[in-house]
C-alpha cells in the first residue's frame, strides 16, 4: 500500500476512536463499512461492508491508520453486502435464474411419481388450447385471450403435465421452445434477424411468416408463434 495518512489524520482518528463508548458502532464516513469497538479495548471489529473493491480498499486504509495509533482491526468475520444496483435487465435475469433453480427440482404432477420435469421428453411437448380468458382492455372493450400450454407426458406414469409456456421455455431451452411441430409433421423454427436476412437474400422459399393457422394443415397455432418469421422443414417427408 502506497497510501500514508498524515499526522493530522492520525490525530483525528485517535481522538475519534478513543471517544467511542464501549461496544459502540463506528462507520466509515460513507457508511459503507461498519465497525464495533470491542468492549473498551483498542480494537475495532469489522462487522459488515459493501462487497466492492473501493470499499475493501477503504477498509485497508482504516487498518493502516489504526495500526499506526496502536489500535487493531479484526476483520476475520465480516458480512459482505451486495454492492451492485441491479438494472432492469439484471433483475429479469436473476428472476429467470431463480425460476430455473426451482424448475430443475420440480417433479411430475403426479405426487406419487418422482420423475423430474427436466428429464421428460420436452421436445415432444404438445401445445394444447386449454381455455379462453376474457378481460377488459384499457378502453373498456372485452377481449379474449387464448390460453395455451405445452403439455408434456411423463415417461414413467404417463401423467399429462400442462406447463406454463414461460416455464417450458426455461426448462426446454430456447432452441426447443422456438420450434413448433404441427400435426401434419411440419416443424416451424423461429428465426433470428440475421437468419431472416440470409434467407431473404438467398431467396429461400422455406421462410414464412405465421398467422393464426398453419399454412399447410390449417390447424390453429399457439399464440406464441403467431406473427413470427419462421423456417419450415419436414414438409417433403409427408
Ligand atoms: Zn410421472
Ordered list of secondary-structure elements with their pairings:
Elements: H1 7-18, E1 25-27, E2 33-37, E3 43-51, H2 53-68, E4 72-74, E5 79-82, H3 88-105, E6 126-136, E7 142-153, E8 160-162, H4 165-172, H5 174-177, E9 179-181, E10 187-190, H6 193-201, E11 207-209, E12 229-233
Parallel strand pairs: 3-4, 3-5
Antiparallel strand pairs: 1-2, 2-3, 6-7, 7-8, 9-10, 10-12, 11-12
**Shape verdict:** elongated
The beta-strand count equals 12
- Please mark out the parts with pLDDT under 50 across 5 or more consecutive residues, or reply none: none
Instruction: Calculate the mean pLDDT score and round it.
Output: 90
Helix/strand order, N-terminal first: HEEEHEEHEEEHHEEHEE
Beta content: 25-35%
Helix content: 25-40%
Whole-number radius of gyration?
31 Å
Report the structural category: alpha+beta
Q: How many structural domains in the coordinates? A: 3
Associated small molecules: zinc ion
Terminal-residue CA separation: 74 Å
Helix count, per DSSP? 6
Largest sheet: 5 strands, mixed
Quick overview of this protein structure:
Helix content is 28%, strand content 27%. It is α+β, with helices and mostly antiparallel strands and 238 residues long. Strands 1, 2, 3, 4 and 5 form a five-stranded mixed β-sheet that branches. A four-stranded antiparallel β-sheet has the order 9-10-12-11. A three-stranded antiparallel β-sheet has the order 6-7-8, with no helix packed on it.
Amino acid at each position: 500500500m502506497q497510501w500514508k495518512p498524515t499526522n493530522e489524520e492520525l490525530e483525528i482518528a485517535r481522538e475519534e476512536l478513543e471517544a467511542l463508548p464501549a461496544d459502540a458502532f463506528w462507520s466509515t464516513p460513507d457508511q459503507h463499512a461498519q465497525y464495533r469497538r470491542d468492549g473498551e479495548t483498542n480494537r475495532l471489529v469489522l462487522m459488515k461492508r459493501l462487497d466492492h473493491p473501493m470499499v475493501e480498499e477503504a477498509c485497508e486504509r482504516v487498518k493502516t491508520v489504526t495500526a499506526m495509533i496502536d489500535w487493531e482491526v479484526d476483520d476475520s468475520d465480516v458480512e459482505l453486502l451486495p454492492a451492485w444496483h441491479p438494472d432492469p435487465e439484471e433483475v429479469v435475469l436473476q428472476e429467470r435464474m431463480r425460476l430455473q433453480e426451482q424448475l430443475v427440482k420440480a417433479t411430475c404432477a403426479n405426487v406419487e411419481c418422482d420423475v423430474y420435469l427436466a428429464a421428460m421428453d420436452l421436445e415432444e411437448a404438445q401445445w394444447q388450447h386449454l381455455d379462453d380468458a376474457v378481460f377488459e382492455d384499457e378502453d373498456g372493450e372485452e377481449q379474449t385471450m387464448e390460453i395455451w400450454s405445452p403439455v408434456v407426458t411423463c415417461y414413467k406414469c404417463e401423467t399429462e403435465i400442462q406447463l406454463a409456456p414461460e416455464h417450458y421455455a426455461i426448462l426446454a431451452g430456447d432452441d426447443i421452445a422456438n420450434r413448433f411441430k404441427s400435426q401434419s409433421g411440419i416443424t416451424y423454427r423461429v428465426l433470428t434477424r440475421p437468419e431472416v436476412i440470409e434467407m431473404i437474400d438467398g431467396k429461400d422459399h422455406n421462410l414464412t411468416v405465421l398467422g393464426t393457422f398453419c399454412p399447410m394443415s390449417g390447424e390453429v397455432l399457439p399464440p406464441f408463434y403467431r406473427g413470427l418469421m419462421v423456417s419450415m422443414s419436414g414438409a417433403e417427408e409427408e
